Amino acid sequence: MASQTHRPALLQRLPDRVVGLLREIGQLGDERGCRVYVVGGVVRDLLLGHVTLDLDLTVEGDGVAFARLVADRYRAGLAVFERFATARLVFPDGLKIDIATTRRESYALPGVLPTVQPASIEEDLYRRDFTINAIALQLNPGQFGRLLDAYGGQSDLRARTIRVLHAGSFQDDPTRIFRAVRFEQRLKFRLERTTIRLLAQAASTNLIQQLSGPRLQNEILLLLGERDPARVMARLSQLTLLRFLHRRLSYTTNVKRVVTAVPKALTWWTGRFPDRGIDKPIVYFMALSSESSPAVMATMIRRLALSREQARKVSAGGKFVDRVLKRLADEGIVRPSQVYRFLVDLPDEALVLALAKQMSLQQAAILSRLKGQLVAYMKNRTIKTALTGRDLQSMGLQPGPQYGTILGKLLDGRIDGTITTEADEHAFIQKRFGLIG
Ligand code: ATP
Fold this sequence. Notes:
Elements: H1 2-5, H2 16-32, E1 35-39, H3 41-47, E2 55-60, H4 63-74, E3 77-81, E4 86-90, E5 96-101, E6 103-106, E7 115-118, H5 121-126, E8 136-138, E9 147-148, H6 153-158, E10 161-162, H7 169-172, H8 175-187, E11 190-191, H9 193-203, H10 213-224, H11 229-238, H12 253-272, H13 280-288, H14 294-303, H15 308-315, H16 318-329, H17 336-343, H18 348-361, H19 364-380, H20 389-394, H21 402-416, H22 422-433
Parallel strand pairs: 2-5, 10-11
Antiparallel strand pairs: 1-2, 1-8, 3-4, 4-5, 6-7, 8-9
Adenosine-5'-triphosphate (ATP) binds next to helix 8.
């Protein structure tokens, strides 16, 4: 039958097995007497001709019960988030599908998470952030592939416009201010005129200050994880949104130069050290705050509620990296162990930042020296001494801080090639401390 095999044009790009699965899920919807839709970013991306396999489904009815049914049918793994009436399915082939219940949201206070109640698909779409993200695609057999676009999403996609659904949208959820910039810059769209006015209005109040640290952090790191963070930062700066990280944070020409050099630094790094993964959004955050004082950085770290690990990385950026670069550029620094000592406490992200900073300065000789230093350092940091603290003890050395000093000297010798064997290590200690090894 034609209607059985017909594949709506929009779904042409999805793999056959995914379309087949969606069709079957639609049939299950009919069996359960509920309407099932694909919603949000997937539909947007499909309409733009992009394939996203991050499928979000919503069910007019009990989404969680429906998710259980699908999980049973396909032996998919299931995680239920009761509080949000959502579930995540992981199929045996790795495909992931999130299933929610269509709902309406109400906000007791601006900036806090909403309370939710079941509602129609139209209401569910109305609570969404932008018209382009508020299009649903129905899966039930008779309506398979039908688009539900109650708020002009397709026309805004054609006009390449980001538009909120109602005037209170940014007040309801100020994270949408950052989401607006994220989609605008990613898709190379423009904020629609009223939307930009509403955004500016919302940003002129204390709404964003009321956002919790983790929520603000999430938005900022997502923005910095986009493909072109330099564009994103320029736009945040233009919309005067950087002040929500710190009132003194600004996108100066110098900062911009560093940020713009980060992609080249990352490419160089991953080419040389492919198995040393880099937290890319954090590197960009470090680049953005590269001219900030330690006090400003500390305030931003607190505001964004960065984890201990993230905070450690970010604190190693800034002026600290400038000092390291200055030392490394010093002609007097010739021993590999000296380079090792300057760099050993730095997280990889700070090394990438240092490289980006140096790249932004356009001093070819110093840059190539730095690259050489980094390559040597990365090799040298795998070097170990043969002797350990236990050995020093059995050699009769009194335990204490001097152990660190001695082992450090041994390591320096190994790195510089003046010590190459365990016997050399013994001899070194003997000579320095007059001990019998
Ligand atoms: P991405 O490609 O970045 O994943 P996405 O559109 O899929 O984009 P998600 O954050 O995964 O974004 O959200 C899925 C959908 O949920 C959105 O398309 C939107 O309809 C809705 N949504 C997400 N966050 C909000 C929000 N803060 N306010 C309103 N609707 C939202």
